[in-house]
Amino acid sequence: IKKIGVLTSGGDAPGMNAAIRGVVRTALSNDLEIFGINDGYLGLFKDKIFKLNRFSVSDVINKGGTFLGSARFSPFKIYNNRQIAIKNMKKRDINALIVIGGDGSYIGAQKLTEMGFACISIPGTIDNDVVGTDYSIGYFTALETIVKCIDKLRDTSSSHQRISIVEIMGRQCGDLTLAAAIAGGCEFIVLPEVNYDKKELLKEIKKGINKGKKHAIVAITEYICNVTELAKYIEKETQRETRATILGHIQRGGSPVVYDRILASRMGAYSVELLLKGYKSRCIGIKNEKLVHYDIKFALKNLKKNFKSDWLKTAKTLF
Ligand code: ADP
């Protein structure tokens, strides 16, 4: 391997820049040429590929987002489009690709490896929903952002004796919600991993009110229900002012926290080291603070995210 490409794909996450930097600097230290691709698989298809040098990644370690740009490009599911993408890399003699993204991006990388193109995937998403890793790049930064928002909501909810419902990102993974709820002292938690019943939630909230709670914060993961409707229902049933706050894309921004910068730097470097060792189809993770790698096909098929039921149990005893 002499020339490699790097791209960021899917939802952006703070720390992606630090990961790109890790890839670029490690590649250059090992006398490899390194190419950046704009806008994920879209840029690969559209041939937006350009050479990077060590200064391309100066002053990016502390910046949120991704300077390469990211995109969602569903036509990448079509074989012929992936063939064009591979051709675009091969005409520059690029013969390996590092993909930084979430589980959707992992599938894209797996498809490329099935077509004979070497790929290493790095977990970059705030959702922490990627298999084969305890944490993905961006998760801890998003968590800080969310908890800061919850703290602010607490101030005003408490002043007005209001019930606040906070909708948190995570798709089908409740890790962000659960951790933020513990750190933010939320009274009620609704997660995708646990059956949701709005009547049960109402019962719990009423129990809280009867105990003398003046206000409450409900942390809920996105896509479980319409939180504005839920707020109306709870307000009607409890006669307490209830408001929903959808944190939205605020959660994706900001300068990465220290842990994300270190994780991203280590994973970026590790991805290049794996290529140098001859690996062609791996995804990277961190397990008990050690970097690990798995065959991507095996990981996507067999590995599952563990639900932290012990965390939920603790959270519930703290209400
Ligand atoms: P994330 O990587 O954050 O989970 P997405 O699920 O949107 O984000 O996936 C990112 C991109 O990965 C998609 O826009 C598409 O280009 C590519 N991708 C996802 N699924 C597939 C698939 N089955 N085949 C090929 N490419 C895919």
TrEMBL record:
Substrate binds at residues 125-127, 162, 169-171, 222, 243, 249-252. SUPFAM superfamilies: Phosphofructokinase (SSF53784). ATP binds at residues 11, 72-73, 102-105. The keyword Lipid metabolism does not apply. GO terms for cellular component: 6-phosphofructokinase complex. Pathway: Carbohydrate degradation; glycolysis; D-glyceraldehyde 3-phosphate and glycerone phosphate from D-glucose: step 3/4. InterPro entries: ATP_PFK, ATP_PFK_prok-type, PFKA_ATP_prok, Phosphofructokinase_CS, Phosphofructokinase_dom, PKF_sf. It is found in: Cytoplasm. Residues 3-275 form the Phosphofructokinase domain. This is ATP-dependent 6-phosphofructokinase. The lineage of its organism: Bacteria, Pseudomonadati, Pseudomonadota, Gammaproteobacteria, Enterobacterales.
